[in-house]
Prior knowledge:
The protein is α/β, with parallel strands linked by helices and 357 residues long. The protein has 14 helices and 12 strands. An 8-stranded parallel barrel has the order 1-2-3-4-7-8-9-12, surrounded by 5 helices. The chain has a 4-stranded antiparallel beta sheet with strand order 5-6-11-10. It is globular, with a radius of gyration of 19 Å.
Amino acid sequence: MNMTLRWYGSKFDSVTLKQIRQIPGVEGVISTLYDIPAGEIWPQEKIHDLKTEIEASGLKLCGIESVNVHDAIKIGTPDRDTYIQNYITTLENLGKENIKMVCYNFMPVFDWTRTDLAKMREDGSTVLAYDQKVVDTIDPQTFLTQTNSNSNGFSMPGWEPERLAKVKDLFEAYKEVTEEKLFNNLIYFLKAIQTTCETYGIKMAIHPDDPAWPVFGLPRIITSKEKILKVMKAVDAPFNGLTFCAGSFGTNPKNDLPGIIRALPGRIHFAHVRNLHHFGPGVFEEAAHLSRDGSFDLYEICKALHDIGFDGPIRPDHGRMIWGEVAMPGYGLYDRALGAEYILGLFEAIEKNSKKN
């Protein structure tokens, strides 16, 4: 596996490439062209410039997170083929720059959803948190306004203001989209891009829904082992794979995280490893990566990845905000650096024990 950190680009991220380069064992970054709206083509020149900037720092561009999927594709409107063709052109441009992994999601309207972006913990750190009761008592517009007002002035991934300015229209557009229709639209999309992905050796890694249940009545289709296996079977080709995100699948404590990994050998192209602390049904908060700080056994998660021969990029996911840092919620430097070192330590121990046995 290749240890990475997510990096949003020098114009948008409080964390610098120079800082990332100093984290022992971190080989590269997962990045994006953050200022290109969903549905527009990524010019090869801009991709090249991003890659050149990263490589000049001594790091590698190990993949893209995300090339966002336009709502027309998810909804299945008559103009979806136009946006799919734009997506294909973007994939071609990525392939020409030898970029081989693309993380994306198929969540309607909202990307990851949290009800508190800075919940204070006993140790004085702040974390992302979720309480279903809060979601049940407010409308989507109020929720959007509250989320944006608590983002420390950062534009957050999946919460693009130009798209969500029309949140009421989006909800109206998704009104007739059932879980079955959303699934069928995903398969239509994957089959349309398959030839391009295979031509350039690009692995598509779908991110699970976060949280792993419907929010504001919107359908969710990547929530469990059974549902991701359904997607893998529907387009049974190596390019079609998963971003295993412990935090997203783990929002539902019934999901067996190591079991999901072991069910998908060869189909996990990217991994997000993090921890959550569950307090009750639909109530959780982010935790430090350390197993005993939350509800997950990160040793068993890392061992499962090792056991299936996972060799793709991996990254610590949402971190706590610690030591007075001000950054995009979940994406500060310090706690993610601690997380990277912890995960690397687990893998080192697992690999050495494996050789002994």
